[in-house]
């Protein structure tokens, strides 16, 4: 166990995208997420989050609310939540009612992480919302206030829309989900601070401004009824294996996905490490080296002790109060092994 006073009190949590591997189905991917959540629960991780994505062959978690109901019922202690639900895709009342119901079913265990990006291409986002209204980023703060009002968490001095002001998410609440704001920019960091919300920063996106966003969040923070001091969670993509060579090999599929996402390539299910190795070998070596220096796919792919040290350094650099680890692998057994190694060494 770590004896570093800056990291011993920092809990670890899990973000899972229900990755769909080549030759596998969405049903198998969701079953894998259930296995991973149950293992995270047994290992003592604090939270298990799933993310909303659409029209992506590699991701099965299209409906976080439905999946979270199953994961909460399949685990005993761990908090379950969205990392996140994408607010531009849904009317605020739909999100608030879904998560109020989850909280009623599993009191004290539900997190509602809200994101500003659609998590989908514009056509899919418009199909989800059935209108282009409310799809712009400029609408996000007002719609977020509506969600907070519907859940009884509107900050003092803020007002919901006229429509939302007449509504509530559930007829007789006994509790409320913990609402988080998610982001990969200083805009979200500042908004989370101004509203007094816990903030989860997507460091695994590799934006290069994680420390800046953390500073903006703390500088803009105003105490609220739900939080009297800033609370920051930072994500990182991690694969732990018994050797550096195997960890790098297991990280190959995430590199292939990074190339496809950032170069406009055709999206596909998660490759096997063997197929990823062949695909990566076909790239121009110089271009590949420069690309992966900026977009590594997996940020930490190594053995357990260096992985733990890299995460400790991330905590020291950002002052994070929690860490959210995520892994992209073809086989769930490799994601389970990563969680087991980190839980033992942290």
Describe the protein:
By secondary structure, the chain is α/β, with parallel strands linked by helices. It has helices at residues 26-43, 64-74, 92-105, 122-129, 140-150, 186-195, 210-220, 244-250, 252-263, 273-281, 285-294, 304-318, 332-345; strands at 12-16, 47-50, 79-86, 110-115, 178-183, 199-201, 232-240, 300-302, 322-326. The protein has an 8-stranded parallel beta barrel with strand order 1-2-3-4-5-6-7-9, surrounded by 8 helices. Helix 3 (92-105) packs parallel to helix 5, helix 6 packs parallel to helix 7 and helix 9 packs across helix 10. The radius of gyration is 20 Å and the shape is globular.
Explain briefly what this protein structure is.
Helix content is 43%, strand content 14%.
Provide the structure class: alpha/beta
Q: Numbering strands along the chain, what is their spatial order in the largest sheet?
A: 1-2-3-4-5-6-7-9
**How many beta strands in the DSSP annotation?**
9
Distance between the termini: 5 Å
Secondary structure tally, helices? 13
What is the C-alpha radius of gyration, as a whole number of Å?
A: 20 Å
Strand content: 5-15%
Give the helix level as a range of percent: 40-55%
Mean pLDDT: 93
